[in-house]
TrEMBL record:
Residues 2-87 form the Methyltransferase domain. Keywords: Methyltransferase, Transferase. The keyword Zinc-finger does not apply. It comes from Halobacillus amylolyticus. SUPFAM superfamilies: S-adenosyl-L-methionine-dependent methyltransferases (SSF53335). PANTHER family: CARBOXY-S-ADENOSYL-L-METHIONINE SYNTHASE, TRANS-ACONITATE 2-METHYLTRANSFERASE-RELATED. One of its GO terms (molecular function) is methyltransferase activity. This is Class I SAM-dependent methyltransferase. GO terms for biological process: methylation. InterPro entries: Methyltransf_25, SAM-dependent_MTases_sf.
Length: 187
C-alpha cells in the first residue's frame, strides 16, 4: 500500500484487517502517508462507510486460504455489492494443483489444513467457477512465482462488457486509477 500510495498520491486507500495488532503495525509503518488509513474489520462484512465513494479497486491479496471454501462465494458477492461497477479486484493467491507448483502447493495445503483457522487453497477450476457464479470476469491469470504456485489475476464485474471487450479497452489508455484496467498486465 505504501508503494501504491507514493505512485498514486491522489488516491485514497483503506487497509482492512481482522487483527488489531496487524492494523496497529500497519498504521505505525504508514505514518506520513496521508492517503492511507486502516480499519479493523472482517472483509466478509466490511464495507465503505456511508457517504464514501465505492472503491475503484479492491486488493484481495493472500487471503483465500483464510476463508472457508464454502464462504468464498459469499465474500466475492459481498465485494461485488460495493465495488464500482466498472471496478477491479486484484487477487494474489497461492493456487492448488498447478502444473509447475504441485510440490509447493501440496506442502502449503498440508500446513493450512492442519490449522483450524486456515483452509485448503483454491484450484483454477474453483476460482473460475467462483468468478462466474459471482458475476465477475476473471482475466490475466499469471504466475508470480511459477514453482511456488503463486498467482495473480483480476476480477471485474461482468454485467456490462464481456472479457474480450475489457481486454480491448485496456489498450492505449492513460495510466491512472480512473482507468484502473490500465493496471492489468496485458495493457
Ligand atoms: C497472509 S496475510 C496477507 C496480508 C496482505 N494482504 C498481504 O498480501 O501482504 C493475511 C491477513 O489476512 C488477515 N485476515 C484473515 N481473515 C480475515 C478476514 N476475514 N477479514 C480481514 N482480514 C483477515 C489476517 O489477519 C492476516 O493479516
Amino acid at each position: 500500500m505504501r508503494k501504491l500510495a507514493e505512485d498514486y498520491p491522489n488516491v485514497q486507500m483503506t487497509g482492512v484487517d481482522i487483527n488489531q495488532d496487524v492494523v496497529d503495525h500497519a498504521r505505525s509503518k504508514s505514518e506520513g502517508y496521508p492517503n492511507i488509513s486502516f480499519e479493523v474489520g472482517d472483509i466478509a462484512d466490511w464495507r465503505p462507510a456511508e457517504g464514501f465513494d465505492s472503491p475503484e479497486v479492491i486488493l484481495l491479496h493472500n487471503i483465500f486460504h483464510y476463508i472457508h471454501p464454502e464462504l468464498r462465494a459469499q465474500l466475492l458477492n459481498h465485494l461485488y455489492s460495493y465495488l464500482k461497477k466498472d471496478g477491479l479486484v486484484s487477487v494474489i493467491t497461492p493456487i492448488n494443483e498447478t502444473e509447475h507448483g504441485e510440490a509447493f502447493s501440496s506442502a502449503f495445503n498440508s500446513f493450512f489444513v492442519a490449522h483450524s483457522n486456515l483452509f485448503a487453497l483454491p484450484n483454477v477450476a474453483e476460482l473460475e467457477g467462483l468468478a462466474e457464479s459471482c458475476r465477475f470476469d476473471l482475466f490475466d491469470l499469471d504466475p508470480i512465482i511459477k514453482e511456488g504456485s503463486w498467482y495473480t489475476f483480476w476480477l471485474t464485474p461482468s454485467i456490462r462488457v464481456g472479457r474480450i471487450g475489457r481486454y480491448q479497452e485496456a489498450e492505449g489508455n492513460e495510466q491512472t486509477l480512473n482507468n484502473p484496467r490500465q493496471l492489468t498486465k496485458s495493457s
